[in-house]
Amino acid sequence: MSFCYILNAQQQIDPRIRELYGDKANEMLGNNPELLNFWNDLLTNRIEIAELSASEDAVKFIKLSQIDLLNKYNPSIKRDVVFNPETFNPLKYNLEFTAKDTKKVYVVDNSNYIIIISPQTINH
Fold this sequence. Notes:
This protein is of the alpha+beta class. It has one domain. It contains 4 helices and 4 strands.
């Protein structure tokens, strides 16, 4: 029965999550539906890329270039040379994904884009 689950999980793993884990994606996520759900929820519901409004000051946000890469499982992960909001993979960066109390905002260097991560909610 678990073999069938693993096959289904492999088919449903977002390419951005696969990039994070590289060739260890199936191993790390195949038997861990909670982790897969966490990443999917993050990508679908909690991360937003927006443009700075005229009233916002980019200086008050942490720059993306100051954030370490998450390359423990996939050492070939590299920083984006050119930022494209359509292809950007926020999972490559060690952003604060698990904050429970406040939004986290990061500014993309040399651009007017910000990355907004909404707080994590826990359902009981």
